[in-house]
TrEMBL record:
The keyword Ribonucleoprotein does not apply. Keywords: Hydrolase. Belongs to the isochorismatase family. Residues 4-156 form the Isochorismatase-like domain. This is Isochorismatase family protein. Pfam families: Isochorismatase. InterPro entries: Isochorismatase-like_dom, Isochorismatase-like_hydrls, Isochorismatase-like_sf.
């Protein structure tokens, strides 16, 4: 069964940039999964440091209003990997998920780490590159012209272990003419 993992769509991240395009694509993917009665699992990152925008008891740690109405399962994590010391593995097993689609924030941290961890655990993984976002940019990494989403997508794609698609490719591969993801 296919399942969707929506990573860290929280106020403390979304409010630090212009993510309307990414959020729109994320919502489209979420709706596809819900229409097909496939599980949609949201991850929330909690930090224990009060100064963090994702401090566990802050407004920043809450799911962003744009997508929180779609959350049927919400799990908590404290590291970039959605699997490390969380209930994700047992939840996926209970739901019968063997193919995990990944969208959310931050592309080069939590999304990438989770994709690799999912592959390591035997899941088929599809990473929808343009349905991820990041608060970082080329200046953050002192790498002029760096397109973080494209770079991460290329690295994962070249691994030949993780399927990397943009939203249009996802539609073509998983919806096709039938308009049905599955």
């Amino acid at each position: 069964m296919k399942g969707l993992l929506v990573i860290d769509v929280q106020n403390g991240i979304v409010n630090h940039g212009e993510f309307s395009e990414e959020l729109s694509l994320m919502e489209n993917v979420i709706k596809d999964f819900k229409e097909n009665k496939s599980p949609v699992i949201f991850m929330r990152h909690f930090d224990d440091v009060e100064e963090s925008s994702l401090y566990k008891d802050s407004v920043g740690s809450e799911l962003h209003d744009s997508l929180k109405g779609h959350a049927e399962y919400v799990l908590v994590k404290k590291t970039p990997s959605s699997f490390y010391n969380t209930e994700l593995s047992s939840t996926l097993e209970k739901l019968g998920v063997d193919h995990l689609f990944i969208i959310g924030f931050n592309t080069e941290f939590c999304c990438m780490f989770t994709a690799i961890a999912a592959f390591d655990r035997g899941y088929k993984v599809t990473f929808i590159e343009d349905a991820t976002g990041t608060v970082n940019n080329d200046e953050t990494y002192e790498m002029k012209g760096l397109d973080i989403k494209d770079f991460v997508g290329t690295v994962l794609h070249w691994s030949e272990a993780i399927e990397v698609l943009d939203y249009e490719e996802y539609i073509e591969v998983y919806k096709g003419d039938k308009g049905n993801v599955f």
